[in-house]
Structure formats: structure tokens, C-alpha cells
Design brief:
It catalyses: 1-(5-phospho-beta-D-ribosyl)-ATP + diphosphate = 5-phospho-alpha-D-ribose 1-diphosphate + ATP. Pathway: Amino-acid biosynthesis; L-histidine biosynthesis; L-histidine from 5-phospho-alpha-D-ribose 1-diphosphate: step 1/9. This protein is α/β, with parallel strands linked by helices. The chain contains nine helices and 15 strands. It has three domains: about 130 residues, D-Maltodextrin-Binding Protein, domain 2 (3-Layer(aba) Sandwich), CATH 3.40.190; about 90 residues, D-Maltodextrin-Binding Protein, domain 2 (3-Layer(aba) Sandwich), CATH 3.40.190.10; about 70 residues, Alpha-Beta Plaits (2-Layer Sandwich). Helix content is about 30%, strand content about 30%. The longest helix has 21 residues. The chain is flat.
Length: about 300
């Protein structure tokens, strides 16, 4: 009897708690944990724990390898997963070949984890286009993405699958070129390689299983999604304040990038000037601030926004 009740309790619990898979360690980990923190999801367990529980919400966090995340979502082991688009695309193509389920929903794109999958060749090689790779051995961790791109270009090549230290392959005589993730290019430079073509550009993405969630889980999702959107909007936005001549307001508003309608506040004792407050959803460059100053704006402040709800 007790075992039966226990099993029912576990089943009931899995129907009520939203389970999210994230990268245990890697380039997305810190930003993902920061995103959760800014969304008010409190998780104190060490990264060494495979399964962590939020303290304040019915959410479980599963810490795994990034290339396991798409499969966990597609196999309905977890409800959501945060993964790089590059890993998602590569895993989807691999699972199609293996005859495994590949269905998922894209919940939203996230504004971090930017990288690119690029071809790199030795510095001394003359390179004009991807067609120069005809007949090459190319080392990569992403054979399906590479094959798709080179097939589009009509280029035949041999793929050399490596799961780490791809950049040393040409120097070790394992390959003629590589196709690997690039963020800064410093690792390529250190290994005598130059980036010559981008195969795929990637960001982090939140994906979900291709089923309706249980009502209790959907309620959690409906709570979290606006928070996620608010945090991402805040990261891309700035709060701008300045004092400005009243007769220059049309020109000032015209050069503020991505700005909403500003709040205009009367300045005591200065009928010809106003305080202008506005949220801008685009970067504000020094040139724009200097243009604002040239129009008579003073005390120009650009402040980061931590959280924002539309």
C-alpha cells in the first residue's frame, strides 16, 4: 500500500512541477543561471547536483550536457530546455537519421550565447570561397551542419569527427581545415588558423515539449514567460534622462534610437526647458549623446534597467 501511494505521489508531483534542463557547465551556464535569478527563481544547490529544486516555485532544474538537452525535451523527459541553436539543429538532424522523435516547440529566443560555427584554415592557405574545400578533410564537432552547408555549395569533403580540441587537427595532420564554434577567434589565432566562412550563427533558445502541459505546469509557465521577456527586454534597454530645450524636442526625439514616447516634465523656474525621460530599446552610442548635447541637452544620463514588464 505504501509503495503504491508513494508512486502516486511521485506521478502527481511530476504533473505539478515544471522541469527545465540546462547546461551543467559551459558557455551558456552562467548567463542561464543569471537569467533565472533575475526572474526570481531561487536555486541554491551546487552545480554538482544533477537535479536542483527552486526554493520559491514548483520548478526542478536538471543540469546536463548541452547536447543531451534537445533529446530530453523531444523524449518528454523534461518540459523545457535551454540550449544553443547550433546544438539543437545538429541534434535534430542526428535524431532524424537515427529515426528518433524530433518534435519540439520554440518557446522563445534568448538574447545571450551568441556564437558562430565557422570554417577555419591554416594561415598560409589561400582561400577565396567554400569551393576551395573540395576534397578536404575537415575536422568538426558538427558534421550535420557542415554537411548541409557544403552540400548546398556542391562541395565534396571528408568529415573528421572530433569532440574536443578541434583546432589542433590541422597541426596534428588529422585534417586540412576545421569547422568549429567561434566567439573571439583567439583560439584559432593561437593555433595558426584563420576564420574564413561562417556556416551557422547561433544564440541560446528556450524550447519546450510538443505536448500541452498539465494545467499546474502551464500556470507556472504563464508566470515565468513574462518574467523572461521582461528580463531580456531590460538587458536590451536603457533608461535615458536629460534636460532639454522645449523647442528642440522634435529633433531630440527623432535621434533617440528605438525610443518610446518620452515623459516630459516641467522644470521649475525654466519655462523654456524640460526634463525628458525615455526608455530606449537600442544601444545609445557616444555619437548620439554628442548630438543630443549639440541640440542643447544637458545632464544626459543613461541608466541600465534590471527588470521591465510591458
Amino acid at each position: 500500500m505504501s509503495a503504491c501511494c508513494s508512486n502516486k505521489s511521485v506521478t502527481c508531483d511530476t504533473q505539478k512541477r515544471l522541469r527545465i534542463a540546462i547546461q551543467k557547465s559551459g558557455r551558456l551556464t552562467d548567463d542561464t543561471e543569471k537569467l533565472f535569478k533575475n526572474c526570481g527563481i531561487k536555486i541554491n544547490e551546487s552545480r554538482d547536483h544533477l537535479l536542483a529544486h527552486a526554493e520559491n516555485l514548483p520548478i526542478d532544474i536538471l543540469r546536463v550536457r548541452d547536447d543531451d538537452i534537445p533529446g530530453l525535451v523531444m523524449d518528454h523527459v523534461v518540459d523545457w530546455g535551454i540550449v544553443g541553436q547550433n546544438v539543437l539543429e545538429e541534434t535534430t538532424m542526428q535524431r532524424e537519421v537515427d529515426g528518433l522523435p524530433v518534435a519540439y516547440k520554440e518557446v522563445m529566443k534568448l538574447n545571450y550565447g551568441d556564437c558562430r560555427l565557422s570554417v577555419a584554415v591554416p594561415n598560409e592557405m589561400e582561400y577565396k570561397s567554400l569551393k576551395d574545400l573540395e576534397g578536404f578533410k575537415i575536422a568538426t564537432t558538427y558534421p550535420f551542419l557542415l554537411k548541409r552547408k557544403l552540400k548546398e555549395m556542391g562541395v565534396s569533403f571528408k568529415s573528421v569527427l572530433l569532440t574536443g580540441s578541434v583546432e589542433v587537427a590541422p597541426r596534428a595532420g588529422l585534417a586540412d581545415a576545421i569547422c568549429d564554434l567561434v566567439c573571439t577567434g583567439a583560439t584559432l589565432h593561437a593555433n595558426g588558423l584563420k576564420e574564413v566562412d561562417v556556416i551557422y550563427e547561433s544564440k541560446a533558445v528556450l524550447i519546450g515539449r510538443d505536448q500541452e502541459l498539465f494545467p499546474e505546469k502551464q500556470a507556472i509557465a504563464d508566470l515565468i514567460i513574462p518574467r523572461l521577456k521582461g528580463v531580456m527586454a531590460a538587458r536590451e534597454s536603457k533608461y535615458i534622462m536629460m534636460n532639454a530645450p522645449r523647442n528642440k524636442l522634435p529633433e531630440i526625439k527623432a535621434i533617440l534610437p528605438g525610443a518610446e514616447n518620452p515623459s516630459i516634465i516641467e522644470l521649475e523656474g525654466s519655462p523654456d526647458r524640460v526634463a525628458l525621460h525615455v526608455v530606449s530599446r537600442e544601444k545609445l552610442f557616444w555619437e548620439t549623446m554628442e548630438s543630443l548635447k549639440a541640440l542643447g541637452a544637458t545632464s544626459i544620463l543613461v541608466v541600465p534597467i534590471e527588470k521591465m514588464l510591458d
